[in-house]
Amino acid sequence: MQSNARKRELILAVETSCDETSAAVVENGTTILSNVISSQIETHKKFGGVVPEIASRKHVETITRILEEAVREAGVELRDVGAVAVTQGPGLVGSLLVGVIAAKSLAYALGVPLIGVHHIAGHIYANALVQPLEYPLTALVVSGGHTELVQVEREGAFRIIGRTRDDAVGEAYDKVARAMGLPYPGGPHVDKLAQQADEEIELPRAWLEEDSYDFSFSGIKSAVLAQVNQAKMKGDVVNKAGLSLGFQRSAIDVLVTKAMRAVREHGSRQLLLCGGVAANQGLRKALAEACGQAGVPLAVPPLSLCTDNAAMIAAAGYLKWKRGEYAALDMKAEPLFSLEDWSVSEG
Ligand code: KG4
Ligand code: ZN
């Protein structure tokens, strides 16, 4: 007999694509009942970046406890769960595998559908956990592994109109921070220093071709590294705050200008900001100002939903669940997964 709770449309979701082990229970794709996140940052800090082999071992150690906690915190029973969603890719293959295997086992044992989710679709649909989305919309995805402008004409249909040609913006933040001797992950430290700066060391902007929505951050990253090296060679003190502000302004100027052009040219009714770098105060402020001027609503998830978490995977997984688009139990982890191919079927 089916319990009433089963009819509640509960998704149990798992996210292990990088260095966060997370499990969540979400109702109707919008209401978070639990969202448990265990970060490995302390482990990777001493290496100055994520070590894939260590990351997957940590996921193995943590996943069962996190899953149990997510179900307990949600106040539901495992038998109430109607579907299991998991990040299928992109990400570190060894890390993805841990989540995929856990999710498959659960879906099989519970006799419920398995849903493979694209990680970036998750970042975008994190916004659906906060407010209803209106289409067409443009999403600016900024994280440690991605910098993309995604046009979403209708629910679950993704078209990438711009992407980074080299470093992701978060990756550039982390490299710049490392060169200045700041701890990993460096983005929040550079953000903080930029806010404290009383002078800006101006850096160039990488606009690329006039009509391009693509990005490039390796040039400004190299410009910062050159400044740091020069100062060191001369025995000068590195002006970390001034460089942080210069780097941040250069990156933000290009991100905001291109995002606003995309909104204008596509007639978008909303701009969504998502991914770990969406935590950046300078970027939030600049986008809010630009959107205010253009009269376009800006949606930014709260900080806890900007970085990797399983609730966002449930929110995106719900799009497929509604349409009966399930994965087979032989689903593979896809380290280089295409967002456009993951789009839901039309109609
Ligand atoms: O989305 P996320 O948690 O993981 C990936 O999927 O990559 O993003 C992590 C990235 C890191 O590069 C981190 O330095 C950056 O987001 N980040 C920030 C800030 N907070 C996190 N970058 C700039 N300013 C911040 N406040
Ligand atoms: Zn992410």
Blueprint (SSEs and pairs):
Blueprint: E1 10-15, E2 20-27, E3 31-39, H1 41-45, H2 52-74, E4 83-89, H3 93-110, E5 114-118, H4 119-125, E6 137-142, E7 147-152, E8 158-163, H5 169-179, H6 187-196, H7 218-234, H8 240-266, E9 270-274, H9 281-294, E10 298-299, H10 303-306, H11 310-322, H12 339-342
Parallel strand pairs: 1-4, 4-5, 6-9, 9-10
Antiparallel strand pairs: 1-2, 2-3, 6-7, 7-8
Helix pairs in contact: 2-3, 4-11, 5-7, 5-8, 6-8, 7-8, 8-9
The structure holds 5'-O-[(R)-(carboxyoxy)(hydroxy)phosphoryl]adenosine and zinc ion.
The site of 5'-O-[(R)-(carboxyoxy)(hydroxy)phosphoryl]adenosine has 19 residues, from helix 5 and helix 6.
